């Protein structure tokens, strides 16, 4: 962390990847671990600095597995977390088209850029959301995380706000369908689904396995 004080604004977010995200699909990690991680980042990172959030890179793809192998049905939820939690999201080569093989590490190994799993539009929406809403900007330019109370411990809900722009994210971080209440209120547009919804102060969600919603009151 000394280099963040003297030289750099960002470093690789290995702590988020290894200690939290990898354990979510197996049930070894959950919402409380993400809350603990954010608290740790707030305590350790100098003001204005931030981790680079990744769910794959050249090391993990080659030696541990593709995003599909590592996250399975939770892959989109994990990717969305990397864009909505504090930090700068990283997209590794081929991630946005569902790279389905482990690239050779020491040899030339070309990527098939066919969008085999229809992920390009999904990542495009995440990038646009990140760039357009000040609440999700990097470092001190973005909004702090405020975790919202939920009636089910497998539901993670949090909001980030900056200059009146607010983003609320609701995730089912489990392989089971859950119903639960999130405590909030306001008028929001669903970012990825382009629909409008008035959220009640006690909003009930029924969420399929790994289902998530991202709401915003920001008008681009």
Describe the structure.
A hairpin with a 2-residue loop joins strand 5 (155-162) and strand 6 (165-172). By secondary structure, this protein is of the alpha+beta class. The chain has helices spanning 2-6, 14-19, 31-44, 58-63, 67-71, 75-84, 120-132; strands spanning 10-12, 50-53, 88-89, 145-147, 155-162, 165-172, 178-183, 186-190, 195-199, 202-207, 212-216. Helix 6 packs parallel to helix 7 (120-132). It has 7 helices and 11 strands. It is globular and about 55 Å long. The model has no long low-confidence stretch (mean pLDDT 94). The strands form 3 sheets. The protein has a 6-stranded antiparallel β-sheet with strand order 4-5-6-11-8-9.
Question: What fraction strand?
Answer: 25-35%
Cα shape:
globular
Counting DSSP H or I runs of 4 or more residues, the number of helices is 7
Helix-residue proportion? 25-40%
- Residue-averaged pLDDT, rounded? 94
Attribute tags:
three-stranded parallel sheet; 7 helices; 27% helix; six-stranded antiparallel sheet; alpha+beta; 11 strands; globular; single chain; 220 residues
